[in-house]
Amino acid sequence: MSENTERLVPTPGQTIGPFYGYALPYEGGEFLVDRSHPNAVRLHGTVYDGHGTPVPDSMLEIWQADENGQVSQEPGSLKRDGYTFTGFGRVAVDNVGHYDFTTVNPGPTEDGKAPFICLTVFARGLLNRLFTRVYLPEDTDALTNDPLLSSLSEAERATMIAERQSDGSLHFDVHLQGDRETVFLAYPGIS
Fold this sequence. Notes:
Layout: H1 3-6, E1 41-48, E2 58-64, E3 88-92, E4 98-103, E5 116-123, E6 130-135, H2 140-145, H3 147-150, H4 154-158, E7 163-164, E8 170-171, E9 174-175
């Protein structure tokens, strides 16, 4: 070893984009269920930077329970068979930062708990991925009693609750920084 390499230290996680676009997205990754599924719902929105400008080179993953609150243990997330709900989806945003998933409304994993979708953000300039939750807006009692949401201010809570639109879809924008920054979560042992 040379004298210079002996002083090198490990670097932090690497920035994600825009290079992931060549290998990580896969065909059908945005379809957790087919659009023809009787309970299909569209989850969509835009990823914004701290200035409110769309981020066109980001990628999102979602993980969720099914309509009955069951967390899938089925394999096959990256190779869809068209029948098995795995609860996982991955999509690159389009050139104006917009994303779309076709999924189902998750059920609560326990009685009285607020149903949510886990969302992971990968984007340029991020040293590590970001984690948040997308809560369904309807069960206001469950939202009020949710331990995570109740630990946040009203403005912070609002960044984690999707808007149900007139067509039944869920609209959820992600703000990476700024006044409307989405609340992001840290999990012990995950960097």
